[in-house]
Fold these 2 entries.
Entry 1:
Amino acid sequence: MTSVFENEDLDHDSVENSMQPADSPELRALYEGFDAEHLMPLWTQIDDLMPMSPKPKAVPHVWKWSTLNALARQSGDLVPVGRGGERRAIGLANPGLGGRPYVSPTMWAAIQYLGPKETAPEHRHSQNAFRFVVEGQGVWTVVNGDPVRMSRGDFLLTPGWNFHGHHNETDEPMAWIDGLDIPFSYQNDVGFFEFGSDRVTDYATPNYSRSERLWCHPGLRPLSGIQNTVSSPIGAYRWEFTDRALTEQLLLEDEGQPATVEQGHAAIRYVNPTTGGDVMPTIRAEFHRLRPGTATPARREVGSCVFQVFEGTGAVILAGQETRLEVGDLFVVPSWVPWSVQAESQLDLFRFSDAPIMERLHFDRTHIEGTDR
Amino acid sequence: MTSVFENEDLDHDSVENSMQPADSPELRALYEGFDAEHLMPLWTQIDDLMPMSPKPKAVPHVWKWSTLNALARQSGDLVPVGRGGERRAIGLANPGLGGRPYVSPTMWAAIQYLGPKETAPEHRHSQNAFRFVVEGQGVWTVVNGDPVRMSRGDFLLTPGWNFHGHHNETDEPMAWIDGLDIPFSYQNDVGFFEFGSDRVTDYATPNYSRSERLWCHPGLRPLSGIQNTVSSPIGAYRWEFTDRALTEQLLLEDEGQPATVEQGHAAIRYVNPTTGGDVMPTIRAEFHRLRPGTATPARREVGSCVFQVFEGTGAVILAGQETRLEVGDLFVVPSWVPWSVQAESQLDLFRFSDAPIMERLHFDRTHIEGTDR
Amino acid sequence: MTSVFENEDLDHDSVENSMQPADSPELRALYEGFDAEHLMPLWTQIDDLMPMSPKPKAVPHVWKWSTLNALARQSGDLVPVGRGGERRAIGLANPGLGGRPYVSPTMWAAIQYLGPKETAPEHRHSQNAFRFVVEGQGVWTVVNGDPVRMSRGDFLLTPGWNFHGHHNETDEPMAWIDGLDIPFSYQNDVGFFEFGSDRVTDYATPNYSRSERLWCHPGLRPLSGIQNTVSSPIGAYRWEFTDRALTEQLLLEDEGQPATVEQGHAAIRYVNPTTGGDVMPTIRAEFHRLRPGTATPARREVGSCVFQVFEGTGAVILAGQETRLEVGDLFVVPSWVPWSVQAESQLDLFRFSDAPIMERLHFDRTHIEGTDR
Amino acid sequence: MTSVFENEDLDHDSVENSMQPADSPELRALYEGFDAEHLMPLWTQIDDLMPMSPKPKAVPHVWKWSTLNALARQSGDLVPVGRGGERRAIGLANPGLGGRPYVSPTMWAAIQYLGPKETAPEHRHSQNAFRFVVEGQGVWTVVNGDPVRMSRGDFLLTPGWNFHGHHNETDEPMAWIDGLDIPFSYQNDVGFFEFGSDRVTDYATPNYSRSERLWCHPGLRPLSGIQNTVSSPIGAYRWEFTDRALTEQLLLEDEGQPATVEQGHAAIRYVNPTTGGDVMPTIRAEFHRLRPGTATPARREVGSCVFQVFEGTGAVILAGQETRLEVGDLFVVPSWVPWSVQAESQLDLFRFSDAPIMERLHFDRTHIEGTDR
């Protein structure tokens, strides 16, 4: 499998296309026949259709949180939230994807904004969704009737076909990011959608959702929940647990014990406790912490991912181009684009990706530059 | 899960979008800000992005084999086969997909044509491929060095990253259909490609490939092949076995035994013998036989599929529109479009689909009209 | 599958054995021939060999903790702990199993006792082991070099082939129960054993083991531990989490939410976080809490299990016979023996069983009396 | 994991048991207390209970087919077949297993004999069963109402809880071997049993069972049977397929292709076509063919197996002791006993084992002498 990396110069461009016939009236007639019959020849398309390695139209891009946040606030002033539009969410539109609201070919990423005392009405859809909170608090998301508090650092799930709405209990607005598989669902025509209650079904504001009270006990599984579920039953993965897990990994590394993925780089994956696998069938979510001064080796991966800086400063190098990062900044890594991250301070990064799609369909590949992996 | 079918009239169109603000200079400035920062709001996009049920851009369509075959023959006269273009394959381009060579959002289907004594050079790619032979013989496809005879009714595999080339041993041309996951791979940026030998690596013409000699013994597995493989190790699924399996199902039905999927409708799935599952991670393949006079109930399924008539005459009803079918005709069923087939004579149908994608990602749904399934 | 329960009167005893031939010299010669050639006929054995439903030789039995504890203390005075005998463990010997140290045909259960400042030397074996602590503290078990604190209510693992030893840091003795699959391993000849260090390899006494620091964060998985493991990587399941999980289930029940397995009966299973499945391939472990006054319906299950009372008082009815229960008491339920538990006070019960064996080999069956399950 | 093989001399015998206290009145009182309370100490039992490597009580043994067959014929004369005794089956009783009718701790193997026109009545049981036919023909086994022909070289299944009976259509007696998991079921108390019809429910004598007509088409799966089943749905694995599969492996080896498990040694495993895995949850079945002069390396495996010579002559070396083999001879290999087979002529061997138990519970280990595997 490694030869593809070594022979990347032997590509379509280096090979004469021996199948390009000379122009002739007969050929034109043939091509017109193709058009009339809804046909297209491979021999004129193959360079684009079947590249030597992934050539994504999506491009690497960084969005600044300060800019996103300001535009979201303005939306809060100008655009009401309610039925029909459903959410005051502003999607990151990859500059390479021709004006579609897709952060990558598979994923939607948006900043969602809810003003003081506002409610976003309930609905459900096949698309799998999560939220991640880089700052703020005061909103509860109600998932199938279970109110889930949203606070800084929390990762929250609304897997496909679960009713959900949000409401802001406070006098302050709140913004967070949403991630969904909308582009994948749209492209492959898999989406169903249903309206629910115009108000959320339960305005209670408990500290912990019922899903957490049932499921968030390490290594324990309720006997009433012994059937595996396609997606995680946990509504919220709390920051306190994520922070503690990463802290312990770095402490263990200090003690000379195996715990981190590479020197100075702690990381956890959010998982479905019924299987140990990804939280949802199409979306992987992880949290990474780099010690000050740590730089990850350049990696290429099949599939796309998005990072958001949660804490600290540093830089990302995407296809050789470096961009400085601050809290809240988001960047997308399209398929097979080399990326590495450098931590100035301790750097905390939330990450999500379409890796479950790639793995379940056996398209996953990783290459770490300078290695034969 | 059934409410979505019952409430299809309660859709986006029936709901006022309460989030459409009145035009104003401030709103225009906001929207310009979105554009400048590569952002797009959900509230103007949701009707298209998240329909109440799949609204595929792909449309149902029937291609006549007689037309395809004639154009393929003309291509044989005008277009050489060889390195660069790689294959004399003419892709079915769904009329709804804007001039892309995609039969559906996920799948490529093409007629491939190889003239007397011609060779299509070896290459390999991540994309999964199969061939199905509706007529003719005389070509061998060489898969990782194993020559595989291609004859009428055979279903042949070249799973991702296996080197393969073809050569025609005879003085007659041969045409068959190719199916691949090219659109899915292209859309999601997963494809790798590598050139191999300009000639096939083995011009032997055995009746049975080594893969068949090792693997095609019912219920038996070679101990040397006891590790499971991602895709089926079988190079060719021979018509004689398919025909016999279907014949037996109908005979068993005659004897009052459970064997068919529904009255008068025999069917088999081609499987990976190491797992009992689909032959490749992205493509399902099946063969269906209807007794004369049998009509299947109208079905909607998430995901797209393509049928080719192998033998007999009948009709297909796609979204309410009936088209007559003859040997070799192909038709595509986009996601969630109701379809049914009616057999005039005994009707033999080859079918392939993206069902493994839908099932592995848990987007699969089926609705049979007139039932609560 | 239910007919077996309804027709239990139609058993071997109700059927004349039509194959019992009259005695004759020829028959005797035949039977002698069998003996000489190491053969035995089925027709004389079948009633015993293949009963209508499981007829375990193991019998229900209750062991009193006060008695066990007293004998363990005496052993502490009389028997040194060390290499060769390896552990000061006293196995529960089911009265029906003919003097073998088996609590059931598959499982070993013992009280283990470690005096002040004593060390039990390191070794490893194929047999899977756990410990459960009904009282006391002060011992650390060192599993593959990782010191794991043992305290009241903790459930601790040493899966097959992990080196482990114990040491008591205090001036007080400590006793706990061990559970292993020794009888199963012995019967089926699967066991390997290896001596390790005569002292434990690390006398540190941390509050939390490295395994817990890496793995005990709910819903989070270290990226460094992303490969699944046959057994759970968690060294200790702490009482505080078990207690909290059960408390929350009962609170949720109070709130009218689904959370308990049946009214007044909260329960968790200890699981392998990499799979969501049982902690070890042969042993299931659970903890049950009954509200005061709760009585479980009589259940029969294929496979055997052992309970230990952790807190509270109540009674168990085993095959119709009731025995009062106090803290620390242990009882065994052989296969298919009906059992139910009644809580006087709130009753906390630790349970372990061979259910993973039964389920993986598809022998599992459950019958709840008075239902058609 | 290899150290256990290298350090086998460091075993219990080489270590002084430091826990054997000096005899004293107090110690005697303690041990009497243990007895009275149904307790047994580990420190007096561990050498036997937890050996350094498996020390099976079962011993290697060879049974001669000529002897078995003669005794079975005598049974046919003296013992009627019918309800109660159920089958005229004579079990191989391992000389090491104390007079139990067990060929190994997990498995039953028997010669079953059915005289001209006799019927063995229908019943069903949890125990999994197969038959293998080393000679003869003329019996049909009726499995859940499906008549299955039994002929030389066929391997036939009656998985747990399927009704089955047999009848001999001819004027000649027929004998074959039965394999079941009776000892495992008995030991672990998992067995249920139910009587069925006193006569078989269908006396038809078709060449192929319905199960074969539905399932025995290589690489094809009926859509009506798309749900996986715990055990194989195939009633009979015919000799013609087994023979052909092995013949092809040796031909491929002649052609320099990878196909055999080792030089001169072809082998297949019988599998469940719905999963590619073992035919039943507790029993593995294989067929091996050695070229003349081939000798397999000495292997030790955890778990026990039985071989029957189907054709040819050769020898088996069991724990260093060689025995000559002829057609029909059976031998048992207890756990971890080294075995190798030598072919004089071409040697065809049927084999069954408890390997699925070992693998599902992760006790499997193999050691090939002279290697580090």
Entry 2:
Amino acid sequence: MLDLLKSHASVRKYKDEPISDETFHELLHAAQHAASSNFVQAYSVVRVKDPVKRDKLAELSKNRKQYESAALPLVFCADLKRLEHAVSLHGKEILAGATESFLVAVIDTALFAQNFVVAAESKGFGICYIGGVRNNPETISELLELPDHVIPLFGMTVGVPEETNEVKPRLPVEAILHEDTYDESKYDEILTKYDSVMEEYYRSRTANNKNSGWTDVMAAFLSEPRRTYMLDFLQSKGFLKDT
Amino acid sequence: MLDLLKSHASVRKYKDEPISDETFHELLHAAQHAASSNFVQAYSVVRVKDPVKRDKLAELSKNRKQYESAALPLVFCADLKRLEHAVSLHGKEILAGATESFLVAVIDTALFAQNFVVAAESKGFGICYIGGVRNNPETISELLELPDHVIPLFGMTVGVPEETNEVKPRLPVEAILHEDTYDESKYDEILTKYDSVMEEYYRSRTANNKNSGWTDVMAAFLSEPRRTYMLDFLQSKGFLKDT
């Protein structure tokens, strides 16, 4: 089981083999057994079957290749709309605009999605998370007719792998684990060593080999503004309104 | 594998059996292979060993019983601080205050945590997510000396199960799955049926049986304000500052 988790790598090219509805639903059902904060189950999945919609989604999320070849082109949504319906049956309203409600929905969706990934990979399928749906969240919301209090959090492609990326070496456990108190004094030494590990990996991997470590890639990537419209978008969908 | 996922239920009482550092690190290492947005790996785990700190954490998160008996009392943190160190090695700064950066860190942390849960449960351990650390996030941050750009997202207890809760029936797949477009017209019928399923479950379960369904529990729970300080707290830690 740990070997299955440790073998995860994104799949960006799939074989032309379908996944049956039965199998897909079985994976979803298993995934739904992830924990959910107070059992609110605040997530939805949109499966994009229509080829025109799929092509638009591929273009909007800037992940054409994956979405075109995947058996299951999916969008995972943080969803408080179903809960609105649930409580309206009792003449009540939820506080969907509260930051805490947003946090709950995002975490719920992510736990569910990762359980889905483990389920899918255990059956030999490959997956790729598509953060790129957040490149055009408003247009994608229109495309999928997402109402208020539902947002496309990330996409995912699923299928039978044609090519699998190599597994990237993760940060050493001591970088992410702290005992009793958070200790940032250790980072510079650990990260410098990790750069060597990543340099070796990037140099020797078969595809897209390059000359870089980890911290330099992060520096180049994270110091530029990204998706600066995100707060406006979330608020336009009724989230984070307690500002 | 799907059977393992489907058997998940929270464990709130543990046997007095330790988990070795070796095993714990092995679980963490496997869990780190969850996907990470642009490989930023924006999470940390604080393990609380010190009994005084553990008791305080238990009290602050209002989960005394679990935290007292668990072999591993953990706090999972969304963490952009390590990335600050990484990019500072190259004379740069990250945009930690951007809503998109916050989203990335929260999702990264949740994917990692759920992978950790699957790893732990595959080894026969039980777990319980503790959303209750968000009851007193400021005091818990002080207790664990979390710097800016690190927040306690949720806690977790891990150990050898003494008692396991029963598995709750999840929403039917058709409630969470949409085809091409989001369809909320189906909810009222599906949720009414699901209420009957949950009523039967709550009536017949061995512990804490009660007379309720799902929508009424949600209505009672979600219509009251909760953790209304959350946005202020997050901003005080340097997140969501693009408002």
